[in-house]
Structures are given as structure tokens and as C-alpha cells.
Amino acid sequence: MTDFRPATDVLTERSSRVVSLAKLHRASVRRSEGRFLVEGFNSVDAALTTGRTQQVLVREDQEQRFGDLVDRALTAGVPVLRLNERAAGKLSETSTPPGVFAVCDLLTVDLDDVLSGSPRLLVVAVEPREPGNLGTLTRCADAMGADAVILLGDSVDPHNGKSVRASAGSVFHVPVVRLADIAGGLAAVRSAGIATLATAMNGEVSLDDADELLAAPHAWLFGNEAHGLPDEVLAGADHRVSIPLRGRAESLNLAAASAVCLYASARVQNR
């Protein structure tokens, strides 16, 4: 790190800039302004690394702690603003504000752009509603080398603060598509020569025996925690795959099921 360089004058919780940024907690404001707010080291680090950062904000008493991030931002020409403690609390959605934030461009991309890149492993979440689960799913997708996460139907905003934090920076690493048309999105995936695999307790294929399917380009379909996959999506999948459960648990939640399935895909595709 080069010598630490202080940023600007300290902003208070009443600053018009802080008041404006706090409104980014609302999805409608994020959409209309084309930007979102992230907090914490992992998210700000990933935002700077991928060049999606408009500005960085740091609590005045945390400048030395986050000096590396501030220095990188300034070197890249990203404005850095200083906050007092109450301003940081106003911007944070956590009980213990981390002290560093970034304002970033929205991250979602078009499905056509993803499919034109000849993907081999896709994660499709149908109507995910819980932001923490979506963030965990995105993190698993990133860790296992998935080419994109596709959100279909009435989904939670991937720029939601809880979802971004749960992804631990992965939302900046893996492309995210958001599309309201479930049937149209799945049809586009199949038209690109990508098989759709749905998890099902009574699936006709066991994950233990699915290596041949996993070696080819495929998309895992996951439903939401409350209702799972819609019946028509489950029935229309190219294959329904069951996860063998060895113990007494009757099922796995979304995060656990996705981790198991994506690891199986990564194991086969990276032999």
C-alpha cells in the first residue's frame, strides 16, 4: 500500500448526499437510479476489483483500518467520501456498521449475452424470495465455477443488501440475469443446447448416477424455500435428479441442495 491519503470533509447523517444514498435501500430507487449500495470489506473489495464502483465511503475513525481499499479507490480515480459514525449507521443495514461502503453500478446482464458465451454450467433460481438464500446460492455458484445465475419470475432483487452480504462479494464475480418470463427464460436456455436438471425427491435419476448428464452443458433449476419448483417447471425439466440422503433428514434446504448439486457438476466438468 502506498501512503494513506485522506479523503474529503466528513459527511453527517443529515448531509443531502447521505440522505440520498440511504434511499438506495429501496429496490425502486435502485432501479430508477441504476446503482446500489454495498457495505463491508468483501463487497467493497470485489466492487473495486471488477471496476463497478462509482464512489467509496469510509467512516472517519476507520480510515486506517480500510486504508488499502481507500488507496485502491483513489488510485483508480474513484471518489472517496468520509462519514461520521451516525452517517455510517444511516447507510448500514446491519446492527454493527462495518465502516466502509461503495456505490456501484447495477450488475444484472441480459440472458442472450450469457447464452452467447457457450456456458456449460448455469444456476436457475425460479422465484427466489429470501435474499439471504439468494446470496448464498450466488456464492455457491461462484465457488463452483458456474457461468451465470439466472433469476426467473417474481424474484428478490439481487442488489438487496442482505443478498449482497450473503454472497460475500460473489455477486460481482458471476453474471446475474433477472427475467420475469419463466417459460421464456427456460425455453431460451434449452434452445441454446443446455439441458435443464431439476432437483426432486423422487427424481428418476440419482445424483450418484448423473455424471453423464453433468459432463454436458446443463442448468440446475432450484425453487424457493416455501414452495419449491412450480409443478409445470418440474414436469418440463429435461431430467429430475434426486439427492441421496444417507441419514434421517427428510430433505435439504435450498442452500444445502445447491451446494451439493453444484459441487457434483464442478467435480465432473473439471476432471
Q: Describe it for me?
A:
The mean pLDDT is 95. Strands 8-7-6-11-9-12-10 form a seven-stranded parallel β-sheet, with helices on both faces. It starts with 9 loop residues before the first strand and ends with a helix. The radius of gyration is 20 Å and the shape is elongated. The longest helix has 16 residues, at 254-269. The chain has twelve helices and twelve strands. It has 271 residues and is α/β, with parallel strands linked by helices. The protein folds into two domains: 16-105, Ribosomal protein L30/S12 (60s Ribosomal Protein L30, Chain: A, 2-Layer Sandwich); 108-270, Alpha/beta knot (3-Layer(aba) Sandwich), CATH 3.40.1280.10. α7 packs parallel to α8 (161-167).
Question: Could you describe the largest sheet, including whether it forms a barrel?
Answer: 7 strands, parallel
Tell me what the CATH architecture of the largest domain is.
3-Layer(aba) Sandwich
Number of domains: 2
Mean pLDDT, to the nearest integer, reads 95
CATH uppermost class of the largest domain: Alpha Beta
Percent helix, as a range, is 25-40%
Number of helices: 12
Q: Could you say which overall geometry the principal axes of the C-alpha atoms support?
A: elongated
